[in-house]
Every structure is written in structure tokens, then in C-alpha cells.
Amino acid sequence: MNVLNENMTEADVENVLLCFPHQPDSCPRAHRFLALKVPMYFLMLASILMTVFGNLLVIITISHFKQLHSPTNLIVLSLALVDCLLGCLVMPFSMVRWLERCWFLGDVFCKIHSSLDMTLSIVSILHLSLVSIDRYLAICEPLSYRMRVTNGTVAVCIAFIWLFSLTFSFGVVLSEVNITGLENLLMLNSCGGNCALIFNKQWGVIAALVAFFIPGTIMSSLYLKIFHVARKQAKVMSERATVRRTSCEMNVQSSEQRERKAAKTLGIVMGIFLLCWLPFFIATIIDPFLDFSTPVDVFDALVWFGYLNSTFNPLVYGFFYPRFQSAFKIIISKYVLHLRNASHLDTL
User: Transmembrane ranges (predicted)?
Assistant: First the structure.
């Protein structure tokens, strides 16, 4: 949101690159050394490709194998679709905006991009919460799980998540309630080629609560409960094995392995989620109270940390589960590498 400094000399002004050189009110373009710019483009393009193709692999895998058609995997399928759309429709434009510090596509598409960015990020986070609810019911209430959680129920929940996220995001951006009271600041810093989604104090808190802290609290609470129940079940089986050690020793070892794997997976899920999104939403809340003093590059970097959650989702929810690992190997070997010896692999 910065414009040319009034104290700059004429020579400095002449050396400044502008987003739109023929417009007197153009924003200054970012001046980055080529040795830094090229690696940044390479890394960001790599993360975009990983996001798109990683989630596309999850979509193809679940769609191809009927054995994976379950309520849980329907959520994972929808999550992969959301993250794939984020990689296709949002991340490439955000990459150019960050590295060039210019928006070349006009004000209308700026609002659409900002709305889609909010929508897909919120939908992705809410899907993660839905996965945690599904896992909680499956592990902590297994007797009623199959009756309460069906493909139809999950589809309704997914539709509600989409409807809520679209309404909230487009409503906030198009109504401009997020910049109420910031008119003078925006007027002073307005220039051609700027596209920044900022929040006033009230909506910075509201957006962070709706998009992160409430879903994150739900996820953390449920995963802690799941971990507690898993440990309790393993302890019960261990006590039973003490009485019948010879016949149950293998079951106890298997239970302990499952407990360790579950704890490891849940820890990775929450660790990646918090690492990717927590810094951004903390900055979203405190930046308005600091008169928007956070450097633009820092804020954009935090946005990309959040995007990386969509890059890691197919790794966490796919590669950590044996059935997905087998399915991925079949898909890659048969349809990507065209290996003959994989032609008979049609089921898991």
C-alpha cells in the first residue's frame, strides 16, 4: 500500500520501477535482486505444482477405487478439491502480487481474487475441522457412528461449509465492512496496481475467530479427546493381556503400535495446521492495533505459510494411511508410468 515517498529526489524517482509506467498514480514495483527473485519464483511455483498435483492425485485415487468410497474419504475428497482450487485459482496470482508488488488485473478481479482467497482458505480449514469431528465420532462413539455418519450427512455438512464460506467471504469483501473507518488511510495510500485485503480492528478479530480460532479450538479439543480414548483403550487391553498373556500378547503389541501411530498422526496434523495458519491470524488481529506497521513482505510470507497447509494436506491425509499409500502406488505405476506389471492392479 506504499506510494512514492515525497522526500525522494528526482533521480530516485526516475530509477523507481512502476506497476503502470504511463500512469502518474501508479504504485512502485518491488525492487528485488535477480539472485533472490528467481529462487523465490522457483520455490513458489514448486509449491503451487505440489498443491495442485498432490491434491489431484488424492481426488483421482478416491474417485477410482470403490473401496475408498466412505464418509471419511468423501470429506478428504472435498478437502483435496478445495486445496486444488486454491492452488489453481488463488496461489499463482498471489505469487505475482507478492514478488512484483503489483496487481495487473484491475479492481474487479482484485475483489474476486480476495473473496476466493478468503473462501477457499476458510473452506479448507473448516474441512479439517469436519475431519476431526468424523474421527472423534468413529473412535469415541463407534456403535452409533455408522448410523449417524453417512455419505448423505457428510454431503450436507460439506454443502453448508461451502455456503457459509462463500456468503461470509464475498459478503465481507463486496460490502467493504472490513475497511470501515479506514477510508482516510486508504485514500492516502491509494495507487494504481494495488490489491491488498486489510481488516479494521473489529473485522480482524471476527475473521480470525471465524476462520481459525473457533475451528482450531474444535480440532484441538477433539484430537486431545481421541488421543485420551485411544490411550485408555490400549491400557484396558494391556490389563486384559496381563491375565491372558500368551493369547493376547500379539493384540497388545498391535494396539500399542496403533496408539503410537495415531498419536504421531494427530500430532503431525495439529502441528502443521498451527504452524501454517497461527502466525497469519495473529498478525491479522494485531496489525490493525499497530497502525498496519507490519511490513508487506512479512504479511505476504505469512499468507503463503497458510497456503502451504493446502500443500501438506494430501501428504498428511494421504501418505500417512496404508490404504492410500497402496492406492497411490497403483495409480502412479499403472496410469502415470504405464508399467505392464501393474495392469492387474485394479483393487486395493
Answer: 40-62, 74-98, 118-137, 149-174, 203-224, 266-286, 301-320
Q: Would you give the DSSP letter of residue 90?
A: T
CA dist 122 and 145 (Å) reads: 26
| Residue 18 DSSP class | B
Q: DSSP H helical segments within 181-295, as ranges?
A: 183-188, 201-208, 214-243, 245-286
**Residue 193 φ/ψ, nearest 5 degrees:** 100, 15
In single-letter form, the type of residue at position 164 comes to F
Number of folded domains that form the chain: 1
pLDDT at 150 over 50: yes
The Cα–Cα gap between 311 and 49 comes to 9
Domain-embedded: residue 301 = yes
Which structural domain range is residue 242 located in?
10-317
Question: How far is residue 166's CA from residue 231's CA, in Å, rounded to a whole number?
Answer: 39
pLDDT score for 161: 96
Short-list 124, 110, 67, 133, CA closest to 306: 124
The answer to the question of residue 221 being in a domain is yes
Whether 330 is covered by a domain: the verdict is no
pLDDT bracket for residue 45 (50, 70, 90)? very high
CA atoms within 13 A on the CB side of 225: 16
Residue 345 domain flag:
no
| Element (DSSP H or E) covering residue 313 | helix 296-317
Whole-number Cα distances in Å, 279 to 212, 287, 301, 325: 11, 12, 10, 31
